[in-house]
Amino acid sequence: MKLNNRQLFYLGMAIIAAITTETLLAQYVLAHGLSLQPMFSEIFANNTTQFMFVEILVLLVVYLVWMLHEAKKLNMKNSWVYVLLAFMPSPAVSLPVFLLMRDRKLLQIDETRSTQTGYA
């Protein structure tokens, strides 16, 4: 199945997110090693970073609950991959990858229905 414009957008965003988040993570590791202590100190350093951390945490939890429900409803296989991607490398990668695969599944369902009803 060929990728449509929306799917190409999701794929592009996933690639951009993977490159940027991994670049930033690599910079952090080069500066601080594998210690998470400096990261948590910086996350809670001021109201702005605290706000962003809570904002992303809430969005991540809502996304994971919705994604698992949606994957089950659409009978999408290997939904654990999207959960893993949400933490390694990031939700910014996981969400567009999931939306890409969800869109492909919805089109597959539509094509199956059209074929079964004779409206292909």
How does this structure look, described?
The structure is a single chain. With 120 residues, this protein is mainly α. It has one domain. Helix content is 81%, strand content 0%. The protein is built from five helices and no strands. α3 packs antiparallel against α4. The radius of gyration is 18 Å and the shape is elongated.
A few lines on this structure:
The protein is an all-alpha fold and 120 residues long. The chain has 5 helices and no strands.
Strand residue content: under 5%
- Rg over CA atoms, rounded to whole Å, is 18 Å
How many helices? The count is 5
- What do the pLDDT scores average to? 93
* Number of separate structural domains: 1
The 3D shape can be described as elongated
Could you give a short account of the major beta sheet? Answer: none
List the uncertain runs: none
The computed structural class is mainly alpha
Primary descriptors:
120 residues, 5 helices
Compile the SSE list and pairings.
Layout: H1 5-32, H2 37-43, H3 47-73, H4 80-87, H5 91-117
